[in-house]
Amino acid sequence: MLVPIFTLKLNHKINPRMVTIGKFDGVHPCLTAATQAGKVFIHNPHARGQRPAAHRLSHSTQDSDISLLNINQAVTCLTAGKLGPNTTGDTLLVGSQTNLLAYDVHDNADVFYREVSDGANTIVLGKLGDIRSPLAIIGGNCALQGFDYAGADHFWTVTGDNVRSLVLFDFTGDGKNELLVGSEDFDIRVFKEDELVSEMTENETVTSLCHMHGSRFGYALANGTVGVYDRNARYWRIKSKNHAMSIHAFDLNADGVVELITGWSNGKIDARSDRTGEVIFKDNLSSSVAGVVEGDYRLDGQTQLICTSIEGEVRGYLPAGKDLKGNLMDSSAEQDLIRELSHRRQNLLLELRNYEENAKVHLLIGVGVIPANTQLQTALSVRPATEAQKAHVELSISTPNAHEGTRCVFSANTPPELHIHSNNRFFLPPTQFHVFEITRQLPRFSMYDVNFDSSADPPTGSVTFSISERPQRVVMWLNQNFLLPEGVESPDVTFNSLRGGGLLSVSMASNGQITLRTDDIDLAGDLVQSLASFLALEDLSAEADFPVYFEELRTTLTEVDEFHSVHQKLTAAMADHSNYIRNMLVQAEDARLMCDMTTTKKRYRELYDLNRDLVNEYKIRSNNHNALLACLKSVNLAIQRAGRLRVGKPKNQVISACRDAIKSNNVNSLFRIMRAGTASS
């Protein structure tokens, strides 16, 4: 349990999910958070009276314990920690949509200031894999980038969508940190440096990740879901009508195992068991929680849990002593517990009554009314689209000796694993049914129907690779991942896509060369990864050609160059206008002081026109920037798609080579790499 030990009211609003704590002088922990108008405040109650130097840092006029760091851009993420080998204390890292600032608060000086074209949506600081120095890793527009203390770029890779959350810890148990990435495409990806080693899919954007202990980590989604994974296995999850603003791991009952602390959008703070998700503590702030951190803020040798709200309220908690445990839940929490127990009692009484009413029915099983060998039989089949309904996969359910069977039709979005509950009547009273439960695996590529029409034009896109496996193994993979009719014993099969149309062709030559023909590069990547996983292939190189997609990418790269050129011109024009405005303002003030009202009015009219032009130019520049970000996202996705056509080292080599080609603006080399996996002709 937790005991509140201090409460502060800061005169600054706090941006959600932008709270950290750092020892910038190596001794005193300082609460640091992003606030409005492109500023970061640093609360240091331990060094009152110390005035900061006059670089970026300024003293707050509202609170003597707060210093303000002027970023002059909207802050998108921040963190603090040990970055350099010879620094006195922690380094503050502040990200925006265009730049990353590493700042030495103690010396009031920039460590480095780097432009990040993909933006910085979230940031984490720590060691990754075999890279020796700690890295500040930012997640942006489908890209991950890591900088060392000197601002050198030591890590870069692409991921599936905009990155929303990051965490570093030893996921695989090999003694080295992996990077977990939560993104807007609902996936949690695990990277061992630039190699993707694992992937988990949720049902909403992954907004927060936190390491708990060992290989266990907590996560939060945009729809109000929080939960815990142990490696790839989900332990538990719960869903709330409120949004989880921050999650943190903290041992509140001194048992050596951390609990998951969640701060919610309605101001509630709760602590849940890492094993079951059961609530073991809760409290409320007066407004939405902005962040949850921990540190020895009172310098008494005890680590406090520190919760902040968006209105600037700060509350610190300590784990309760043994004599107070069990008496800390407030009266409202006790009432909630009583209501929950009462509701559970009613449910148990209702269940007991049902057991009593059905006792006679259950006796019928013993006399053979329901045969002991009765089983639920299921069958999956692909149904093409008709005028009456869309294309779908049909699940038929029946029992051989029941009066009533069940037939269920489900859409293509059904999860890969189906949990089926079937009600069947066996000469029982009208209100009595026997329930059968069964789990049926849905093949990954269920929405592809075998095409027997050989006259259709083949797809223009293809990926080709060689394996040392028998054709029967490929047939086994096809049967496991597609709904094939009986009698298919050859790996040469053509399918129709029931989702978006188009053909998919799979063929295997006698020398082990496999060719996948499809115009969908995403589908090709999924097929390669699925087959490699089935055959346990660690490395797989491939040659690929997707003419339509590559032509679209070439157009996108041309647009990127155009947007960069426009951006530079607009920046130069705005700088010229700013200088002109400065001169015009001086002339207008001179005319006013000389009582020349005619010239003063003329100059201020010109200033008004210039200001209007500046506003219009800013709108154009903003639209240009958004379009540039969209194009860069497409380029990063293209690199990831090219990588997914390979496995293991060839995949990492393709991603790295593509990045180098883009850095050197060598478009022809980029397409050679995507096609052949290497830059050589």
From TrEMBL:
Tell me the GO BP annotations in alphabetical order. non-motile cilium assembly
Where can this protein be found? Cell projection, Cilium membrane; Cytoplasm, Cytoskeleton, Microtubule organizing center, Centrosome, Centriolar satellite; Cytoplasm, Cytoskeleton
Q: Which UniProt keywords apply?
A: Cell membrane, Cell projection, Cilium, Cytoplasm, Cytoskeleton, Membrane
Q: Which residue intervals define the domain BBS2 platform in the entry?
A: 455-535
Limits of the Ciliary BBSome complex subunit 2 middle region domain: 165-272
Q: Which residues form the BBS2 hairpin domain?
A: 547-644
Which part of the chain is the Ciliary BBSome complex subunit 2 N-terminal domain? 20-126
Boundaries of each BBS2 C-terminal helix bundle domain copy?
649-675
* Coiled-coil spans in chain: none
User: What is this protein identified as?
Assistant: Bardet-Biedl syndrome 2 protein homolog
- What species was this sequence derived from? Scophthalmus maximus (Turbot)
From the UniProt record, report the name of the gene that encodes this protein. bbs2
